[in-house]
Amino acid sequence: MAHFDLPLDELRAYRSSSQEPTDFDAFWAETLAEAGSHPLDARFEPVATGLTTVEVHDVTFAGFGGHPVKGWLVLPAAATGPLPVVVEFIGYGGGRGLPHTHLLWASAGFAHFVMDTRGQGGTWAGGDTPDPVGSAPAAPGFMTRGVEDPSTYYYRRLYTDAVRAVAAARSHPGVDATRTAVAGASQGGGIALAVAGLVPDLAAVAPDVPFLCDFPRATTITDRNPYREIGVYLKTYRGRVEQVARTLAYFDGVHFAARATAPALFSAALEDLTCPPSTVFAAFNAYAHADKKIEVYAFNDHEGGESYQQAARLRWLPARLAA
């Protein structure tokens, strides 16, 4: 596969055409206030895993609408005192999986909170959180569920779950709430960006090859799923282009990035047809905090940096979460 998007020097200057809704902040303030009317009710149940270097808790907390959302909390077994925490969000189609697949951050001395993704997990890893909210007709996948209106869109529920996941992680006595990072790859990176714009006191943000950014360009430059789900839907519902674009604008990572208040480490891959590099740079270039960096992988597709990016995170994050 060859490079297909803008040259790197143009990517570094590229700005999205996504139009921010005038009531963007009011929409999200109302959404989070409604979620806050439900008790968080975060519960942590110890799990016997056979692992000796970590202790694992099966987590349940109340997300959007008070719906129960699952997660894992993984702590270093020998930890003393509250630890900085990395709250991680999962890629498209995946769930929280099994706890022994989440050892990196606890091995580095951090608490690690992994949020399950409502309704997902049937494609890989496996999930345990249903989405009890129905939808009008939609293309297969999650991108068009409730897309007729921002109030019914699937990602309104998921982004709200993610904000509540941060609160749940911070509620555990083994976590230092003042040292919280959010991270994720692909869909998880897009969710991390949303949280960066909605939670004002994070210590760090690490979105890898983030999805859900610069919808106007993403939906027209690539025909690979999941973005193509939107095109398939609009191919059927020909008269809804402006209506869908209006909904998506409330969930565009570019607008959340513009509100971010924490240092960030991004990554982009120049042969990425799933999350084209221009869409990632759109969020990076809009990102409001001055302490930001992007790792670029010139000959990778959506796998991005993989273990190389993990190593970059391990070099970058400790200083941002230091006491």
TrEMBL record:
Pfam families in alphabetical order: AXE1
GO terms, biological process: polysaccharide metabolic process
Sequence positions that bind substrate: 92
Origin: domain of life: Bacteria
List of catalytic residues: 186 (nucleophile), 272 (charge relay system), 302 (charge relay system)
Gene3D superfamilies tied to this protein: alpha/beta hydrolase
Acetyl xylan esterase domain segment(s): 1-317
GO molecular function, one term: carboxylic ester hydrolase activity
SUPFAM superfamilies: alpha/beta-Hydrolases (SSF53474)
Protein name per its UniProtKB record: Acetyl xylan esterase
Originating organism: Streptomyces kanasensis
